[in-house]
UniProtKB/TrEMBL annotation:
EC number: 3.1.26.4
Protein family membership: Belongs to the RNase HII family.
One of the GO BP terms on file: DNA replication, removal of RNA primer
Gene Ontology MF terms: manganese ion binding; RNA binding; RNA-DNA hybrid ribonuclease activity
Keyword Metal-binding belongs to the record: yes
Catalysed reaction equations from the record: Endonucleolytic cleavage to 5'-phosphomonoester
Localization per Swiss-Prot or TrEMBL: Cytoplasm
The protein's name in its UniProt record: Ribonuclease HII
Residues of the RNase H type-2 domain: 8-207
Keyword Cell cycle attached: no
Organism for this UniProt entry: Actinomadura decatromicini
Residues binding a divalent metal cation: 14-15, 115
Reported cofactor(s): Mn(2+); Mg(2+)
Length: 223
């Protein structure tokens, strides 16, 4: 119980888009009411449980996203743009996206669970880092699914504006179609322009932005 005598509010936070070449990094914060999570009906008598979005099919992710809003006590999405990633680096961009999500929740969580070993939030949030939390915590799994579905929708919308880059299929990650389009047409306004992929594009490498090293850790945070 919390000091106020109520149930402790636990927010699971997960992000998507960290390794993409284009598009924002998106974070979701999700708070459960501690009731059993929803399950999907599979083939026959098989059921599909809520887990890390990467372990679910696109159809199952979208189906879970439709029912999670009715199960969760609250959830919110936050994002950092490619411009912010270029200016401040990925670690700070992740922090800003997660803080935006947490601050948009209808309730203030007592504890935040992050997937992985690295606490990119820190104070004033009480943070607990757990490796594979998206497979062990239903609140983090819910955040994982909602963040993924939200970002995939954003990138699919860009596909019509910038056809040929395969954004609807790759979500801005370096697929062969995406890489070929970059070589031919160059980066779009939604690409991360401080990243090293531009070093391998002779026609476009002059567009690369060189971030102030004091502004953040940048792409080094991906290693």
């Amino acid at each position: 119980m919390s000091p106020a005598g109520r149930e402790v509010r636990i927010a699971g936070v997960d992000e998507v888009g960290r390794g993409a070449w284009a598009g924002p990094v998106v974070a979701c914060a999700a708070v459960t009411d501690l009731t059993p999570p929803p399950v999907l009906q599979g083939r026959g008598k098989k059921t599909i449980g809520l887990t890390d979005s990467k372990l679910l099919t696109e159809t199952h992710r979208e189906s879970f996203a439709e029912v999670l809003s009715g199960w969760l006590s609250g959830y919110a999405i936050g994002a950092s743009s490619p411009e912010e990633i270029d200016a401040m680096g990925m670690t700070e961009a992740l922090r800003r996206a997660a803080v935006r999500a947490l601050e948009a929740l209808p309730v203030t969580p007592d504890i935040v669970i992050l997937d992985g070993k690295h606490d990119f939030l820190s104070r004033p949030w009480r943070v607990r880092c757990e490796v594979k939390a998206d497979q062990r915590s239903v609140s983090v799994a819910a955040a994982s699914v909602l963040a993924k579905v939200h970002r995939d929708g954003l990138m699919a919308a860009l596909d019509g504006e910038f056809p040929g880059y395969g954004f609807a299929d790759s979500a801005g990650y370096p697929s062969p179609v995406h890489q070929k389009a970059l070589e031919e047409f160059g980066p779009t306004p939604h690409h991360r322009m401080s990243w090293s992929y531009l070093d391998d594009l002779p026609r476009w490498k002059h567009l690369k932005k060189h971030r102030d090293p004091l502004a953040g850790e940048g792409q080094l945070s991906l290693l």
